[in-house]
Amino acid sequence: MRSPRWRALAGLILVACSSGPGAAPSTRDAGGGTDGADAGGSIGDAGIGGDGMALRDGSPAIDDLAPVLEPIRSANGLPALAGAVWSGPQMIAAGVTGVRKLGDPTPAELGDQWHLGSDTKAMTATLVGIYVDRGALAFGDTISTLFVGETIDPGYSAVTVLELLQHRGGAPQTIPQDIVAQMVSDGSAPGALGNAVRALISRPPAQAPGTFVYANAGYMIAGAALERVTGRTWEQLLVSDLFLPLDMRSCGFGAPGTAGVVDQPRGHDVPSPGATPVPIEPGPNADNPPALGPAGTVHCSLADWGKFLALHLAGARGVATGLVTPATMRTLQTPPPGGDYACGWGVVDRAWAGGTALAHSGSNTLWYVTAWLAPAKDLTFAVVTNRGDDIAGTATDQAFGPLIQRYAP
């Protein structure tokens, strides 16, 4: 049966925010990101105590954001709402409020894992950057050179890796239903991503390459290219080359948690406008098919996501990160001329950020997350919730206002 989580939604955040210093940045557009994998385990401990404030590594106490978040959570009917602020790599504020699952009293905790949706895209792009620096491929490599031996429609032949990461590779915004059916049938079987991509590139592009159209399929093609040049799966590469080097031990793929045990937050479906959110147990019905992985399958604790965000914050400030070269980081964070989307990041100017800001949202319709990076102020903001409809998107927008007023005046 086809997963009900399949949606072809966008996930970037480029709409102008409210005026005035500290005003909440808008993170809304036509959609909230599509993401996909079956339930997957994490690779270790989240590293934050359940009381939400005491860090296990002995770091100084941080500001508790729960009193700020609770009125927003309650007013919008969210099961749980969490957020954090970092100065450089250091978490300086965090909080969580609400429950892991509606109808169950288990409270959400700060160390819980949250489905990142399309905010996975920046991770896939960074993984490409790592292998560019290693000489395994180049941003200018084309589909025809990376998929030698496959049937490739002539319209895709000259499309580059960089164009795919910038959503300018001609890939369809909505993946054809027969390919979706194959992805669901393949599930997590080896080769599922490759099977889907072979079908995609054998057909004509959905629009002329070079045209911006937000397309999860483009990230699938980039992920499959990585698999071909390395001989390893995208998931294996992400763990070995990104999660472990950054000590992101809570990260995994698909919906977090164990079915039947309320050990992590549940994503919540809203079957119709105004309906009560329904918790969805981890498993195939809690996410999109695994072959959509490079476009958005990762789950992560706030603290561990912050380690990845800190990598990009440092890179945007011109600080060498050791994981990718400064030149590669600039490519990952620079939109093409006339555009405002780089490689997994919307790039915009915001007064409260002191200039350029990087941002992205993600959702698989059960979760909603947003991150904002303000390089000039060396600050990162992230807000997450386990509900994924438009109300959840509006609520996350609302949460940024007081955080910005306090930490980026």
Q: What report would you give on this structure?
A:
- This protein has helices spanning 66-76, 121-133, 143-146, 161-165, 177-186, 192-201, 216-230, 234-243, 293-296, 302-316, 326-333, 390-407, and strands at 63-64, 80-87, 90-98, 113-115, 252-253, 267-269, 278-280, 298-301, 346-350, 355-362, 368-374, 379-385.
- It starts with 62 loop residues before the first strand and ends with a helix.
- The model is unreliable at 1-57 (pLDDT under 50).
- The protein is built from twelve helices and twelve strands.
- It folds into two domains: 63-122 and 236-407, DD-peptidase/beta-lactamase superfamily (Beta-lactamase, 3-Layer(aba) Sandwich), CATH 3.40.710; 124-232, no CATH class.
- It has a seven-stranded mixed β-sheet, with helices on both faces.
- The chain is globular.
- Helix 2 runs parallel beside helix 7 and helix 2 (121-133) crosses helix 8 (234-243).
- The chain is an alpha+beta fold and 409 residues long.
- Helix content is 30%, strand content 15%.
